[in-house]
Write a structure and sequence with these properties.
single chain; alpha+beta; Glycosyltransferase; four-stranded antiparallel sheet; two-stranded antiparallel sheet; UCP014753; DUF2264 domain-containing protein; DUF2264_N
Length: about 500
Amino acid sequence: MQKDITATARPIIPYEHPDLSMYLKLMKENAIRLRYRKKAYTQHDAYIQQLFSSENPLKQQCDDLVRYVAEAFEHYAMWDYTHAYYPGRPSQQTARTDAMEGCSRVLPTLAAWLSQQQEDSPMLQGITGKPLDVTSWIHKAFLAGTDPQHPGYWGTLHDYDQRTCESADLALALWLSRKQVWDTYNTTQQRQIIDWFKQVNHCQTVDNNWHLFPLTVQLVVKALTGEDHVEHVRYERTKAFYVGDGWFRDGAKGNYDYYNAWGFFYSLYWLDCIDPAFDPEFIRTSLNAFSERFRYFFTPQGLPLFGRSACYRLAAASPLLATLAVNHNAPRCDDAATSRLSIGETKRAFRVSLDYFIANGALKNGAPTQGVFSDDPRLVDNYSGPASSFWSLRALNIALFCGDKIGLWQAEESPLAIEQQDFMFDIPAIEATVIGTFKTKEVVVIFRSDYTQEQSPPSRRLETQTYWKKMQEILTGRAERPKNNLLRKGITCYSSKMSHFF
């Protein structure tokens, strides 16, 4: 029996229901994007694909992935590194918001790398050997992005604003780089930055995983300044979505999907890092419970991928890395709740997931593609823009931050569960059965409940964008794509062979 969660009415969000004024704004920002966009940065696409196509040390792969991303970011960045116009299909938000994501979703990766460097102001060496001053980039971005007089200002936040989501990534980047960046600002500069972040305290969000975004900002503000604006009611609402066995439902009527990996547990992991006393028992116990079963999902050739935001696929290993980190830092979970996950198995799961997708074209133009492998307009949600896919680097961010601490880079890989034997088990909380076949190295997840009863062969297929919708998208700069979340189409069986996405 699935947990009954009290639902709230979904608000009417302007960018989902644009009026004439919204369309005019969209077209204006699209024109600005066309003016400032740069040629695609393709210099290292072939190199990075080859790096992940053959066996190379994981540390080298991760370091070069940071270099690959950083070089392209410098190429695309605008207005003191506050925005970056990456090539790709637009979101429902304005092109300006899409460009903000080009900063907000890249800075955590640069800051995670920076946080582990021994020098005060280290230079990152690009793949070409060019020195990249990421400390300076981050320093400039926060000053410019929070200055209303600067062309790169990140703006005034409002209810249900995409920038509330982005503020969480920015706050995390600021916390990660606090030694090299935050501590170098004077009092006036720090106040300017904090005042911008404190806007989240007055903004409403959609009632799902979005509650974690203001919480991340508020915990960072508290850690950096001592000001306590933490909205514990948001945290309690987030916990209300927890159904057991390590799984969250993404809102009262939402899905059970990989947002557990790259959404809920990614954010909860960082909350635990920022304030280890916040709620260690629940965060660590639920994380262990999730990873105990989730580790079975990984194969050398794909994942049983289901749900929305398929373009975040490189981040699937986030909770496995987070589990190792929290158990290593503070092994305070009850023995019964502690995952049997080993560092060798985690390293292999992380590496093979990167290898599989990147070797098959998941990186292009200096960014993760808008698809599962190469770009695929069928799989780009309307809320996703050209830089949204940088959430794919969330597992990398955790690895960069904790890899040295937990011995990730030096560990010997050990076989995945599917490389050892057949298996079959249930996840009762989400009414799912997981089946692994050793001989074929295939993992299948079967849901025993339909999300919708309204289904037919045509309704279950991945739809393609019509010519007219594509033209409308180009003219307005607003996403006009079909919704292809297969869970909501009535598909209940997902294989690591990933044939749904070919």
